[in-house]
Amino acid sequence: MTDIKNQVQNINPNARARDIRDFINKTGNIYEALAVITSRAKQLSVDIKQELHGKLEEFAITSETIEEIQENKEQIEISKFYEKLPNPTIIATEEYFDGKLEHRQRDRSTNLD
Q1: Any idea where the domains of the chain sit in the sequence?
Q2: Cα-to-chain-centroid distance, residue 72
Q3: CB 35 within 8 A of CB 93
Q4: With a threshold of 0.85, does the pTM exceed it?
């Protein structure tokens, strides 16, 4: 698992309009292109979540009572960073257009009659 900071450094976190023909150029099918991007977005979402929980656990304090809860500035800063990250779908779309995603078609010669 790579550090997400390096992955999203130059990605604009705002959604923008895309020409639908650009999606079709690589796969020949808009639905297939969206399926590839969706699969990668799901992977990124899981990776980001695991990375965030891992970093927050470093600062976790187990206490017996609710009154003992304290603010931890490091946890707040880490959380703010992850809130500002681009959506996993935006990251996956950029990876798709940059040619960083590979996809394969399953063998369609087998019939499921």
Answers
A1: 18-97
A2: 26
A3: no
A4: no
Token digits for 74? Answer: 């490091």
Torsion of CA 55, 61, 66, 67, to 10 degrees: -120
Amino acid in the structure at residue 73: K
Angle at 54 between CA 9 and CA 11, to 5 degrees: 15
Phi and psi at residue 30, to the nearest 5°: -65, -40
> Cα torsion at 98, 95, 84, 42 (round to 10°)?
170
Tell me the per-residue pLDDT of 12-52, one tens digit each, with 9 for 90 and over. Answer: 888 888 898 999 988 889 999 999 999 999 999 999 999 88
**Which amino acid does the sequence have at 81?**
F
d(CA 88, CA 44): 6
Q: Quickly tell me which residue has 């996956």 as its tokens.
A: 92
